[in-house]
Amino acid sequence: MSRSATSRRRPSRATSSSSTIRSPGRPSPRPAARPKSTAARSSAMNVATPSASSPRSWEEIRHRLDHGPVFNGMRGTPYYREAVYEHFSPAEYRRRHAALRAKMQELALDVVICPGGPSHWSFGGGMTWLSGHWEWHALANYVVFPREGEPTLVYSMGGTHCEAVRRETAGALSDVRSSRNGQFGRVMAERIRELGCEKGRIGLLEVDPRHGDYLPVNQYNALKEALPEAELVFTKGIMHELLSVHSEEELDCVRHAGRLCTAAMEAIAARARPGVTEYQLRAAAGAAILEGNGDIDFLIIGSTPMADPAQVFGNPRPSSRRLEPGDIILMELAAGYRGFSAQIGQPICLGEPPAELRRFWDEIARPGYERMIAAIGPGKPVDGLRIAGQFFREKGVQSRPIHVHGIDFVSDGPHVFQDHIDVEPFEEIMKPGMVLMPEPNPITADGMLGMFVGHTFIVTATGKECVDDWPLELTIVQP
């Protein structure tokens, strides 16, 4: 694509060849240990903490579950044997492994550490992609993934939590280890030594690629201390590149997430009555997502009077404000399913809208959105979406700066703004399997009312596919 003066093309995300984080110059003093009774000290001394390399059999531990080290180190129990989980196919995991290993070969990495946390910009990340697990017990959990050998999930908890996760991830990997009370760096280093890569190049992927955050400094320092001859390399953008185009199994998850978005919108419309609070609308939407075996990514919901509006975008923190007849509800919702997500948003009116508001929908919000989605399709330039978004200024109104973004696990590139695009070279042209979220959010010229309109689309071989069933019309609920 030839770049115009209004386009910005990011250079290809390069991999750093050396670490850039320094250990703190002066370690903080350790807190004083709590005194233990003689009996407690004897018990602790007589029960060795099990490790991944020396698991104890079920028969050895089943009558000693009240001993902390025994309980936390359990493995191979009958617990959760009745649990039923959905898994991606073995072929899908082979595809993912091959794609990641090809990237590792390109970057001369022997092992990569793939983290994932519960925040929006992480949403499980590479950890979930490789394990099928989504986690909230820590800033991040990690998959140690070697170029040769089997991957290992280092999970925050031990005991029954860890046993449940072993059941959940059985279709993806066979080695799940406890962090042993947050010693992620040490446990990862042990696995890297087992792989014979203690002198190799270890790639560190982002926990939060949006803000460029990696594993915490204490875990980094533990890796450095345990692997003094290894080279720790901060990589950038690996997972986004691998997820720029999704597989068919991944797209099925995006479609399921789209159905959850529809259910959440239906729940808001059904609950929207005078006297209902914004947080109760949030509860209704969240319950609909959970009822469909999904995960809540975010629920942005706000309300304002249509006759005297003072809101251009939904409220990221839905409040205790009670709905009144004549209100408009603005929202953006995101639902996840098995590590993949879809987003949606469209105004809901509590009662008939005033003529000016109806005109803004009919002449600005809807036709502007239709113009934008017409620019989606295989082989089309992403910059065409920016050009389509000029509609709003041409009509004498404005908008939020962002008009379109992509979705890998969650919101990411390509980003299309009112006046420029921010793209990687591999996503300048739309390809089948890409997932896009057009969300132009026009705003009145006086800056007092906005209408977020957004639906998630899959780029297909012949065009595009909207993953939700919510109609593109101004929804009116009678109070």
From TrEMBL:
Gene3D superfamilies: Creatinase/methionine aminopeptidase superfamily, Creatinase/prolidase N-terminal domain
Residues in Creatinase N-terminal domain copies: 96-241
Regions of compositional bias (Polar residues) in chain numbering: 45-56
SUPFAM superfamilies noted in UniProt: Creatinase/aminopeptidase, Creatinase/prolidase N-terminal domain
Bias-annotated ranges (Basic residues): 1-12
Domain Peptidase M24: 253-461
Protein name (Swiss-Prot/TrEMBL): M24 family metallopeptidase
